[in-house]
Amino acid sequence: MKTFTLADANRTLPLVSRIVQDLVLRYPRWRALVDEYELVTVSQRADMPDPRVSELERQVTALAREIDGYIHEIAELGAEVRNPLDSGLVDFPGLHDGRPIFLCWRLGEETIEHWHEREGGYAGRQPIEALALADR
């Protein structure tokens, strides 16, 4: 697993931001199509298949592939997209005092401003300054 320094992670943000922006824009459309697909398939009758099913299935699959592509691009960079996918959250594996942490970024932030323990998640986010103060 790749580990990032704060500077390394911040250098990737222009690219990460563009990818995450595309992901955040597409995810709600995918979710809406999945919901519509489920409604149509549940309400169709075996003797009267709904013609919309195959088109919805095609659209859902195409968008899912696109979203998977975005997630894969972020993973190739060494970072991790967090759920829900439309939250715009990305964690960059890092180290602090020899222990693994995540440098935490959210779409809309100019730089990485938070970090958390690997088990801590978003709820455990702390200001990045806390790391700098701990190093003194």
Mean of the pLDDT scores?
92
Please tally the β strands and state the result: 5
Multimeric state: single chain
Spans where pLDDT lies below 50 across 5 or more residues: none
Descriptive overview:
By secondary structure, this protein is α+β, with helices and mostly antiparallel strands. 51% of the residues lie in helices and 18% in strands. It contains three helices and five strands, in the order ααβββββα. The protein has helices at 6-43, 52-77, 129-134, and strands at residues 80-81, 89-96, 99-106, 114-117, 126-127. It has a five-stranded antiparallel beta sheet with strand order 1-2-3-4-5. The longest helix is centred in the N-terminal third of the chain and has 38 residues, at 6-43. The relative contact order is 0.16.
Short description:
51% of the residues lie in helices and 18% in strands.
Itemize the secondary structure elements and their pairings.
Blueprint (H helix, E strand, L loop, with lengths): L5 H38 L8 H26 L2 E2 L7 E8 L2 E8 L7 E4 L8 E2 L1 H6 L2
Antiparallel strand pairs: 1-2, 2-3, 3-4, 4-5
Distinctive features:
3 helices; alpha+beta; 136 residues
